[in-house]
Protein: Exostosin GT47 domain-containing protein
Organism: Coccomyxa viridis
Amino acid sequence: MQSPQVSVILALLACTHAAVVEVGKQRIGRKTHERPYASTSSIQRQRHTKQFVYVYDMPRKFTTDVAELSPEWHSKQYDYDQVLHEHFQSSPARTEDPDQAQLFMIPVYLGRYYNWFWQQWSTTGSPWEIVKDCAPGHAPGSAECWWEKWMWAKGNTSELVREALQHVKAQHPHWAKHDGADHFMVFSYDHARCDLAKDLQLAEMGHMFSIQSYGDLTLTNVPEVPPIIQRWQENNYTWGQPRAWACFRPDADVLVPMYYDFDAEDITSPFAAKRPVSMLLRFEYKAGDGKNLVEHYGHRLRHELIELWRADPLPGSKQGLRSPEETDADMARALFCVCAPGATQDTTRFFRAILKGCIPVTFFRANDLPFARHLGVPYEDFVLNIQPDDYMQLNAKVQHILDSPKQLWHMQEALQAQQRHFVWSEGAEGGVLANIERELSIRAQSLTGVAQSVIT
């Protein structure tokens, strides 16, 4: 049962959030030709003014020991829990006095730990081939055995989260003040809490918020909004009660891009060079691949989009899987980059396309994106979004813009104005790290208002 104080706090936070969202909607709604762009000016105005984040010094089992694990397959995109821990240890926003802090970071390296754990049953040299200790009826190397070990890894990663929270609650007095509402953890995997803390009950998590990339709004209690990702089993996303917003809380969580090691000098302007490729589809779909689990991986859109391209390729377009380096080079030569969903609605390909000056083509049904809700990044000005059920309109929609040089130019101009906001490197002016601190500042300010008006 919530205390009266906590109930009042949550009510005030909801009011603060509603006001911020309304302002954000006004910013996002500005037309592209109005300069300066809404998000650029609004992001510049949102600056923290003091040290306000305290970083817990956690036992090494949660950080250093995990960093030393060597999973055979591990993508850097899941390492932003480590990146943010390192950043906040030397950030001007950090305070070493917990009594002066407004927010508290609980560093745990969950992305690497999770990948390391499920690979304990892999074939050496083929980490995606799970062949050891499969349950009866689950053939070695089958998607069923892969899923079985994946769920086991989720359970063990959940236990690591549980131990970290128990440590903070037992060793420090700060959690109890707001039932964790001023605490955050980084959940750096595809489905955030629903991958890395699925076995925890809501009472254990308190009101802690997260930094994560997963912004899917379709897994709600609204039946007429179907999920874009077809689930392997019915209770895949069940995480305590209520079910709504279990994986993403739009009123609290801070969304960030998946990590990639681009520097500011790696940005390619949409106008920097000729772009002879009209549309780029740099992805594949392998039926039976363990990573796909089921034929509906990515709403089956990868398969459907490839088949559409093979039957009716847009003039000047290219399709086919290439290395990340080759894909980045091709993005810098393309006007439109098709960013099909994978395990989630958005992928790292979406943000890499932005940095390479290629207009992303997305298939979001209902999906929040980084820095849009509170900082006002106007994705609709430089992203072509097509509803998943309308994927066969892809060529017609792209061709319509190609036939309208003025519209294309406006989209490219808007894209260029936003590129710097998606650079992860330290010191990038207006980049990801700076924008995370600005979003955290908004969160801290709302809690400060609650503390002044209610607690004291």
